[in-house]
Structures are given as C-alpha cells and as structure tokens.
C-alpha cells in the first residue's frame, strides 16, 4: 500500500469496491490508545480520513487505514469475514502489541484459557505478563495461606495482614491481577491440582505448574496428553538464584519468518516423565549442570516425603549422599554436579525477585508463542543461573539415546 493512501475493501453486491483514503500514515502511539480515539466519522485524531463501508467493524477500520503491511491488512479482513474480529475495546487496548505480532495472534490470545498452579514469585510475574498480553481467561489454584516467604517474592500480595488475613494465595493474586487488565477473566479454583480428572484440564489451552512434586508433574502432564485436544504443559521452578522451565507442546506446528517468506515448522515433544528418564550417560557433556542438580533435589524431596522447597542446609549431607549413589548408577563423575550448586539449591529455598522477573518474563513469552503459533519455542528445558547470568536451552528427549 502507498504511504499516501489507504485502501479499505467494502462488501457490496459480491464485488470488491475500493475506497481510497488520502492522508499520512499515523505515527505509532507512545502509549495505549485513548478511549474513544477510534471514530466512525470524518476524521480521526491523527488527521486520517476515515470514511468507510459500514460492514467493517470500528476496531478494524483504524488498523486497516493505518497499516502499511498488505499481509496484515489481508489478515484483518479475513478475521472480519470470518466473524472473529477483535472488539473495538481490544483493538484500542492492545494496539501496540497487535503491531508487533499481528491481529490473528492477538485474537488467539483473547480466546486462550490458562490454568496456573503454585503462586510463587516467578508464577506471579508470569501471570502479570499474560494478563497484560490479553489472554481470554486465567484460572489460579493455590490454597496455601500467606507466609513470610510469599511476601518476600510475590509482588501481587500487599504486605498488610488486614488485607491477606483469611485469604489463600490464589485469592489474593486474583484480586490484584484483575486490576492489571479488566478485560481478562481471572478466577480461583480450590483443591489439589493433581486430584482433578481429565475433564477439568480439557477446559484449558495451557497448564502451568509450580511447587509440584515429581509425581504430580508426571501425573498432570500425562492427563494433559490424554486429552483429545492439545494442551500445552509447562513446569517452572526457582530456587535461590536459579530457575528451570520445562515445556511439553506435544506435536506442535508453528510459523516463522525466513528471509522474505513465512515457513511452517513442526516439533515433537516428549512428556516430562520420558524426558527425565533419558539416561544421563546419553546426555551431551556440555549439558547444564543445573539440570542434574535439580533432578537430585527433586528425588531427595520425593524420597523424604517433603513438599517442594522444604529443604535446608541441614539436608546437604543426605543430598550429597544421594548424588553419589545416582552418579555411581550412571557411571559418572561427581564433578558433574558441584556440591556448591546443590548447597545453593537446598539452602536457598526462597526465590530471588530479580530471577523471578527474568524467568516469569521468559515463560510468558514462551506461552504466547505456543498460543499464537508464531516464533521458535523452547524445546524442551530452559535453565537460568544468576551467578553467571546465562540462560541455556537444552533439548532432552529419547532421540539422544539413538544418537
């Protein structure tokens, strides 16, 4: 499209009739569009003439008339024809991000239903990000009461006992998240996530779990995999200044830009149980040491009947003993899992807020990729350690055994 004219297509008597709208391309807004800035009369706030056929929804007229990208205009028109266009309110609120990832991606986000369990600091950051991005709904599960640890990392909880007394973590986070974006439906579900049946998970497109035992992670992931539709599954855990994300998108198709064209790609993911069952001897030597250390701590908590994060420096001797037993079983050297790293994980059970922000932001980005089907997603583990400031993606699957 020319920068000096914008073309809208009207639908009349089965013919495509073009209406040329003179005017300059509007400058990108420095913030969210003001309420009421999308008009249906002669001229918008930026001076662009907005005469239009009445069949084009108000929300799409603005973007159609202000977009230089023919592909994006066609995309918007298709949404209109399919009767699935974004509402005027959605287009105004999400104008800037629509320009980043497109109207179709935003539409998919607005229809996505997310389930989150374990409201620690990292998950609070994630929830904030996807609520601002404009998902359809967010359901929170965490019946635990507020503790000193919760207040140290979860910014969604006000440090006022008069506010949080008698309420669960999920209820408090729900109240705060509703204020971030009133267009997103945020609700609370009570109960133990691992006790719910498959029908419960079928209501969601994405399931994110934290503070879950090894057994619970395997069970929930398997329930998601047995559903007739694809449900994206994520685990996220932060200990001290370290973080881990696991991703299972099952059989996932997505698109990405390659030179001047868009290509379709496919990835096949293993379940959490299958991924961690890959023999350590088969894994590359450059594999993140954090992967092995996290597995040792998980197995220790499982063997001791502890909840995730219920460890202390007093447990270090037992954890080191378990490390030795596991490494001997795999015929590997103890240097694979430094004692100093295990000490940090068992002693530093509290989350480090800056790491929460980093991991929560990355997880939010990955979930948006999974919903929109745009961009290369992680496959299938991501690790971050603030000590060296590095984030590492690791692909751990049964393919490594054959190779």
Automatic annotation (TrEMBL):
One of its GO terms (molecular function) is SUMO activating enzyme activity. Its main location: nucleus. Residues 94-389 form the THIF-type NAD/FAD binding fold domain. The keyword Transcription regulation does not apply. Heterodimer of SAE1A or SAE1B and SAE2. The complex binds SUMO proteins via SAE2. Residues 17-52 are annotated as: Disordered. One of its GO terms (cellular component) is cytoplasm. This is Ubiquitin-like 1-activating enzyme E1A. Pathway: Protein modification; protein sumoylation. CDD domains: Aos1_SUMO. Belongs to the ubiquitin-activating E1 family. Keywords: Acetylation, Ligase, Nucleus, Ubl conjugation pathway. It comes from the Eukaryota. It is found in: Nucleus. PANTHER family: SUMO-ACTIVATING ENZYME SUBUNIT 1, UBIQUITIN-ACTIVATING ENZYME E1.
